[in-house]
Write a structure and sequence with these properties.
Residues 351-372 are annotated as: Disordered. The chain is α+β, with helices and mostly antiparallel strands. It contains 14 helices and eight strands. Mean pLDDT is 90; it is low at 358-372.
Length: 372
């Protein structure tokens, strides 16, 4: 138990602030749609999903001289289309197709750089690896924290903030808040790790579906498309999608990224949790001919579980109650990590050890207040 306590305290002293920033940014991102509805024109417009309106909007957007590469269509909680122009460029368009705002750098939009920080640490795939690793450490904190709490469980007294700033008060608040939020923190951290560390995700999902089956189910169509035609009939293309899934929500449209590629359209069926769905359509960009489809609800079980990671992590299911739960999770992680770092580095024992240098092998018995 002493080794567990020592590792929990010392590792937390170094990475706690990082986890606090991840928790705080995650809590803010849960309410991204609310922020946009309050700050961007037309973001509060009701969603239009009829084929005629969608086709007219898509036609107007893709007909621009500097057309975006893809469109994420307006949803029930946010009435703007999100445009992707490549690199860091993006924009929002009203459902009429009119451009509302555009940016050339992620720093121009707070919700963009905040997501980039939370997921990539603003440094791309290397940052994604770091956040995933920190998530694994966070999971270890949850497990070891519950273990360390158990002997003192009769003293449980839940407080959102310490009674005072003494080390003992901070440690007690940290211990009891951590165990109270442990189930939600575990789910939040686990889903985050699975999204950022593919090797961990494959290991967890392997019992549900063989890796070879998952790989085969995600293969792109082998057919090649022709050159992109400026005369595409978007009414017919979207009508084909709607005919196949009349209750589905058309979520995104992507133009070919390179010669020979296909137009891809994502649909969210009512039973899908993922906001943009994983039901896929592919069309030839030369004539709008349907090439292939994929039903997300018919995918292997492991992939259906994987498709639930993001909506669970980002509170895209469960409505307002679950958003509040995940907000509490993020804020709790911020409090736990921030105060853990502060109490660790202001602890006289830590400062004394820094002055002495490497440990001499002697140790002091751990009192009740040392259980972090």
């Amino acid at each position: 138990m002493g080794v567990v306590r020592l590792l929990h305290r010392w590792v937390g002293g170094f990475v706690g602030l990082f986890l606090a920033l991840l928790g705080l940014s995650g809590a803010l991102l849960v309410h991204e749609d609310l922020f946009l509805r309050a700050s961007v024109p037309h973001a509060a417009d009701p969603q239009a999903q009829d084929t005629a309106s969608l086709a007219a909007s898509v036609q107007r957007i893709f007909a621009q001289e500097d057309a975006p590469r893809s469109i994420i269509l307006a949803r029930q909680t946010m009435g703007l289309h999100r445009l992707n122009f490549g690199e860091e460029g993006g924009g929002y368009a009203a459902q009429s197709g009119e451009l509302v705002t555009r940016w050339t750098s992620k720093w121009e939009r707070p919700e963009i750089w905040l997501f980039d920080f939370h997921h990539y640490l603003l440094i791309g795939d290397a940052g994604k690896l770091v956040t995933g690793t920190m998530g694994l450490i966070g999971l270890a904190f949850v497990v070891t924290g519950v273990i360390l709490w158990w002997p003192s469980r009769r003293l449980f007294d839940l407080r959102p903030w310490p009674a005072n700033y003494s080390r003992n008060a901070i440690v007690r608040q940290h211990r009891d808040l951590g165990v109270a939020m442990a189930p939600v923190l575990f789910v939040s951290l686990l889903t985050g790790v699975m999204m950022t560390l593919p090797a961990v995700e494959r290991l967890i999902l392997a019992p549900f579906s063989p890796p070879a089956v998952m790989t085969a189910a995600q293969k792109q169509p082998e057919a090649k498309g022709g050159p992109l035609s400026p005369e595409l009939d978007w009414s017919r293309i979207l009508g084909d999608v709607r005919a196949r899934y009349p209750d589905g929500e058309i979520r995104s449209i992507s133009l070919p990224a390179k010669p020979g590629g296909l137009i891809s359209i994502r649909v969210r069926q009512p039973a899908e949790w993922l906001p943009n769905g994983r039901t896929m359509f592919w069309f030839d960009p030369a004539d709008g001919r349907l090439v292939d489809t994929r039903d997300a609800l018919a995918m292997p079980l492991a992939l259906r579980i994987a498709n639930a990671e993001f909506p669970i992590h980002a509170a895209k299911v469960g409505g307002l109650p679950y958003r509040l739960v995940m907000t509490a999770s993020g804020l709790s992680l911020a409090v736990l990590g921030g105060l853990a770092v502060w109490s660790f580095w202001t602890n006289p024992k830590t400062q004394a050890r820094k002055r002495r240098g490497p440990a001499t092998g002697r140790s002091s018995p751990a009192g009740q207040g040392d259980r972090v």
